[in-house]
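Morning F.,

Quick status update on the modeling queue. The single chain you submitted on Monday has been processed. Sequence for confirmation:
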Amino acid sequence: MFQIKKICCIGAGYVGGPTCSVIAQMCPQIKVTVVDVNESRIKAWNSDTLPIYEPGLKEVVESCRGKNLFFSTDINSAIKEADLVFISVNTPTKTYGMGKGRAADLKFIEACARRIVEVSDGYKIVTEKSTVPVRAAESIRRIFDANTKPSLNLQVLSNPEFLAEGTAVRDLKNPDRVLIGGDETPEGQRAIHALCAVYETWVPKNKIITTNTWSSELSKLAANAFLAQRISSINSISALCESTGADVEEVAKAIGMDQRIGSKFLKASVGFGGSCFQKDVLNLVYLCEALNLPEVATYWQQVIDMNEYQRRRFACRIIDCLFNTVTGKKIALLGFSFKKDTGDTRESSSIYISKYLMDEGAKLQIYDPKVLKEQIIQDLSHPTISEDNPERVSQLVTVTKDPYEACEGAHALVICTEWDMFKEMDFDRIYKTMLKPAFIFDGRRVLDDLHPKLHSVGFQVRRFKNS
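Structure tokens below.
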């Protein structure tokens, strides 16, 4: 059996960096090199301040870096010497042309494929790690076949990641499953077995699933679509609860105790975010449309529509409670990452809630423990958020260094990310510095256990239920 001794990962982002760091730690006999064209990102991976925040990641990196884990901008050399190449580059939703707003943009995948076939010789396994549309591996293979040379033998596999940001290291070390898809030919099966052997170093064999390439690619899209669907489903019920007097938390508990349904992803909130859920559902919608399955496409589009509805509904509720106007009013927005324990802001609900409030002229005072000020300003200055008026961000947005500063002089405190630290704040101190009546809008229901105390202090608390 072919033995993998050297791995190259193209892309040092949220997938490539953590994945290959854990592989290096669990497989000390394998040399792992993570490469990227972004010099500042590689420099950060080689420093004490990693470019991404993930619990436990720094300890993993420091245990292997310089031994069998390396971060470099020398992409060609890493590809040449590797037995296996992971493609972990970004696959954003297209913002132009056919499929705009839905289809995945594969220009970075294509660029990787062309670079790999150009500099490679001998036998090499090329593995998709990025989230890609179904049959992307076939496109990679066609590029390889059209540019092949006698000395070259490239096998293409699909090995999608199933990481949840905030628990990525734990997910990598104790995965629910590892999925590997490849050709059903002898050469394809040989490549699959070689990659299986890497994971079998620490993952039980019964958790490693092998399929054909297309099944592997579609499984990734379907998994994220199902998770997003559950969030949109409970959020749709939260709207019904608020109109009937029911408590969505009680409803979620009741239906979650049904073993056929389960309790995970049944927490009403301001909606899902992150790099995967929306992108993958939209990708699925586009795939269905391309395959002439309009009813299926419409079904999955509703998951996205409900998420957008929930964000807008939350912002409208803030405006309504603040006497139907927020123009010129200070609002403390706590949490900007799309979930706790990460600094990732991609598709964060905080961005869209900020947009709706800025559209009404609100002055936002934003705090997040892990998101840099520059990232917040960049996200809110994007043309789709700033309404082609980036100047309004400098006029309406202040990024603070702690939550207490954000709350000074505010009419309302809005929680958009479920950071644990928000449960432990000194609310007596916060109340004294806010304008009265002082409102709390808990978009993540992190303060549920504190409601009696908050009411006794004087806050008017609003959350997702009948209130």
